[in-house]
Amino acid sequence: MRCEEARQLFDAYLDGELSPSLATELGVHRVRCAECRRSLALLEVSGHIISSDRDPVAVPDDFSERLLACVDVREHGWVAKVRRTLYFVGPLAAAAVIAMAFLGFFDRGRDSRVAGVKVEPTHVEAGAPRPNASAPYDREAADRAIDQWIGQMQANRADKAQTGESTPKPPDLTILQILEMLKDANEGGPELHHFPGADLNELFGPPDEHPVDDEDVEDL
Amino acid sequence: MNVTQREATTSREREVQLIGRARGGDRIALRELVDLHKDRLFAFIWRMVRDHHEAEDICQDAFLKAFASLDTFSTEYRFSTWLFTIGYRVCLNRLRRKRPFSGDLDFSAMAAEGGASPSATLESEEAGRVRASIWSAVDRLSPPQRATILLFYRNDFGCQEIARVLQLPLATVKSHLHRARARLRELLEALPDQDWSNFRNLSERAG
What we know:
By secondary structure, chain A is mainly alpha-helical. Chain A is built from 9 helices and 2 strands; from the N terminus they run H-H-H-H-H-E-E-H-H-H-H. Chain B is elongated.
């Protein structure tokens, strides 16, 4: 075996992959050739030292603690952020859902009382624009209209009493009809914009034929 | 199944269990995984970068990256293979950023720090020089060759496993190993004759 051939076999020999016959041939060459003997010895010793030499440095004792602290920080960085968000947002969302369900329940009732008056539901087209929705409510005009209407009612009653006619029962009015009357009475003056009752259409739906008690009208 | 195989199987089962628990956020399992692998990973990284603080930093980074993507890890492979793959990648990135390692280190001081080792049977100054020369030669290898040599000799990784760690074809790994040995031989053959006699003594002890 020549030196060149022997050197080609060094790796296989060191890895223990050489066939017995080739290993014997290499061994014989090794005994005869000082150069190859030296080269192979260099590699054997190098391998031995690299594999067994102790490392002059060691991982610090507190490495694990510090590493796990970093894991916590990373978790607090995004996982915990999500957790915190869910922790606070969750109950709020639940409260919102309950509130909406609560309102929905009363919306279906459609027979609520507002200020002692039976408010009759009115149908409103979904999504229909509310005219002058952004205009301010004219309180003075509304008061004048109410006073005017009450004055007319009292004058009518007084006239009927003088002529001996029996006082007829006041008509059954829904709050929306009253609002219409107020609006008519306000003609020529400032418009009744965004009167609170106007929103009742949306809240309570279309009117029906339920009568309104006298006492209720008086209260108004 | 012999005792060694049985132990290996138990160890694998234990590792898979630990990974399963760690995926669920079990801190004890995470701690165990760290304790199982930190020494070998740190030693490998330190041999690659030759800087204590940087090695610690890279080691920590490798663990954090491994834990962050624990869900994507396939338990078909050893956890150490995956961890070393990440560690090696981080090492390469750091090495690319910094200047090439000069190799001028005081290995005699390192040898003194290392204390008793299998090769410390040679207490002479010449023996220290031999060991220093070997490690100096290792440091002069290219990063893939150095990683191949370290994983092969110090971590007992087979060529197939090294190929996984370095993300290289098996043939390339074998080539790296062959070239690394040739380079070591070339570097060490320049040693004076006196030191060569120490080599011969070491060789006899190693054999």
